[in-house]
Amino acid sequence: MKFLSIILGMALFLGPAMKAQNVGIGTTTPTLGKFEIKGAAGTGTTVAVFGTEGAGLSIQKDADGTIIGFIQYRDQTFVNSQGNRFANGYAAILA
User: Fold this and answer.
1) What's the confidence (pLDDT) of residue 36?
2) Which residues, 6 or more positions from 35, have their beta carbon under 8 angstroms from its beta carbon?
3) Which long-range contacts (CB under 8 A, 24 or more apart) does 73-82 make?
4) Environment class of 46 (CB within 10 Å of its CB; exposed 0-12, middle 13-18, buried 19+)
5) Strands 84-85 and 72-73, how do they pair?
6) DSSP letter string over 5-31?
7) Cβ contacts of 59 within 8 Å, gap of 6 or more
8) 44-93 pLDDT, tens per residue?
9) Biggest CA-to-CA distance, the chain
10) Higher pLDDT, 15 or 28
11) What is the pTM of this model?
12) Are β-strands 46-50 and 57-62 bridged in parallel, bridged antiparallel, or unpaired?
């Protein structure tokens, strides 16, 4: 009974402090969403990549807006670059 009351007391005390917090990569103050990524790797424009072992996608920043790359990423900063593939197959972008 004593053990149960200790566990219950800890849960009541720590419960409010254990709420999910915002997580940021490249920022110490993520305020725009629960998960926020700022910046691109190296000198490129690719901000995030998902599923690089196959038919994944990338999110890229550009002077003209945001680009989503399918099986493609860009590691150059100039706008006319079509980028590189990270898997075999047809690559495409959605600007």
Assistant:
1) 83
2) 22, 23, 24
3) 73/44, 73/46, 73/49, 74/44, 74/45, 74/46, 75/41, 75/42, 75/43, 75/44, 75/45, 75/46, 76/43, 76/44, 76/45, 77/43, 77/44, 77/45
4) buried
5) antiparallel
6) HHHHHHHHHHTGGGS---EEES-S---
7) 46, 47, 48, 49, 66, 67, 68, 69
8) 788 888 887 778 898 888 767 888 888 888 876 555 667 788 888 888 88
9) 69
10) 28
11) 0.62
12) antiparallel
- Alpha helix (H) residue ranges in the chain: 2-14
Give dist(CA 14, CA 62) in Å, integer.
43
Do 69 and 45 form a contact (C-beta atoms < 8 A)?
Answer: no
Instruction: Tokens for 40, please give them.
Output: 């691109």
Residues forming a β-bridge with 66: 61
Residue 63 one-letter amino acid: A
